[in-house]
C-alpha cells in the first residue's frame, strides 16, 4: 500500500477501530509499573505515565482535527456520529481511557461550537453521547 492509498480511519468498522484503540491503550497502560502508579508524583512522573497522558492528549486532538477538517456540516456530522459509535464500543470493551478521549474531543470548544454540525446529529445519537459523558 502506498502513501497515496492509506485508508481513512473512518472507513473501518467502528467496532474494529474501538478494539484496535483498546489494544493500544492496554499496551500503554500495562507498561506502567505498579510502583509508578502507587508513588505517582506530578513533579516527577514516571515516563510511562507521561506516555499514557501524551497519547490521550494526542488522540483527543486528532479526533478534533478529523471533525474540523471537512468544510461541510453534513460531513462533520458523519464524523461525529462515527466517533460516538466508536465511543460506545469503547464502553462495551471497558476502555474508559479512549472513551474519555473521544468524549473530551466532542465536547471541546472548537467542536462544540459547530452549531450547524450538531443540528445534523440525530436526537438518539445525542442522547447516547450524553449517556457516555
From TrEMBL:
Keywords noted in UniProt: Guanine-nucleotide releasing factor
The molecular function GO annotations come to:
guanyl-nucleotide exchange factor activity
In which domain of life is the source organism classified?
Answer: Eukaryota
A GO cellular component annotated for this chain's UniProt record is: plasma membrane
Protein name per Swiss-Prot or TrEMBL: Ras-GEF domain-containing protein
Boundaries of every Ras-GEF domain copy: 13-133
A biological-process GO annotation: Ras protein signal transduction
Q: Which SUPFAM superfamilies match?
A: Ras GEF (SSF48366)
Please name one Pfam family that this protein belongs to.
Answer: RasGEF
Q: Can you name the source organism?
A: Phycomyces blakesleeanus (strain ATCC 8743b / DSM 1359 / FGSC 10004 / NBRC 33097 / NRRL 1555)
Q: Does the keyword S-adenosyl-L-methionine apply?
A: no
Amino acid at each position: 500500500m502506498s502513501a497515496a492509498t492509506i485508508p481513512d480511519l473512518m472507513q473501518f468498522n467502528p467496532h474494529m477501530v474501538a478494539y484496535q484503540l483498546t489494544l493500544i491503550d492496554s499496551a500503554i497502560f500495562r507498561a506502567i509499573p505498579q510502583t509508578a502508579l502507587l508513588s505517582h508524583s506530578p513533579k516527577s512522573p514516571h515516563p510511562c505515565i507521561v506516555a499514557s497522558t501524551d497519547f490521550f492528549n494526542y488522540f483527543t486532538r486528532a479526533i478534533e482535527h478529523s471533525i474540523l477538517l471537512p468544510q461541510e456540516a453534513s460531513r462533520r456530522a458523519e464524523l461525529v456520529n462515527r466517533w460516538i459509535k466508536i465511543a460506545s464500543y469503547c464502553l462495551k470493551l471497558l476502555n474508559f481511557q479512549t472513551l474519555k478521549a473521544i468524549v473530551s474531543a466532542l465536547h471541546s470548544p472548537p467542536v462544540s461550537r459547530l452549531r450547524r454540525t450538531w443540528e445534523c446529529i440525530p436526537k438518539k445519537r445525542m442522547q447516547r453521547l450524553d449517556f457516555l459523558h
